[in-house]
Amino acid sequence: MPERLLGVEDLHAWYGESHILHGISFAVSEGEVVTLLGRNGAGKTTTLRALMGIIPQRRGSVVYRGNELVGLPSNRIARFGIAYCPEERGVFASLDVEENLLLPPILSPGGMSIDEIYALFPNLQERRRSQGTKLSGGEQQMLAIARMLRTGADLLLLDEPTEGLAPVVVRQIGDVIRRLKEKGFTILLVEQNFHFAATLADRHYVVEHGRVVDMIGNEDLARNTAKLHTYLGV
User: Fold this and answer.
1) CATH code of the domain covering residue 30
2) Residue 234 pLDDT > 70, yes or no?
């Protein structure tokens, strides 16, 4: 069995007085692609934000490579080798593609060079002098993912990477995630597009009301289709 990389136990999180995560627990092994599935408002994005320490009001345990992360600020968490790509992408509109790529600091050894990133994202090489405002939604998503790869992070948290993208771009993003897995990255993916997630992930955690209510391995998807449709309302 792959080594357990991330363990989340009884994690609670709040926005002000709103209690969003109610003891969510799951684990991710090294080299896996794991998805968090669930309806809107289930707590999936909040989970990623809580893992990164972006939500300071949290209680429970998040252990990454033996290090307890609850109680640490985001900058300390990132230095352990975790990178977060939010749904809003965070591309700097006034900077060109290459300036966006060079902006994040290298936090640990093993990050990709600019040439390696361009080999993975040839579209970005062609647009390297284009400002963020001139990029399509798909190009912005590729840039947001690519920007994490220079930092040396080996656990990537991706929030809705296919949201609002054309089918051809969704396929490109899927190809990139497969290639990153082949390179040894571990990926925790929040995704509404179940059919996209099913082509990539090793396992799926179903989230409802801030808790994991089920775990389904990719090899068991066919016999759990009806159950998943009930969970996801599709």
Assistant:
1) 3.40.50.300
2) no
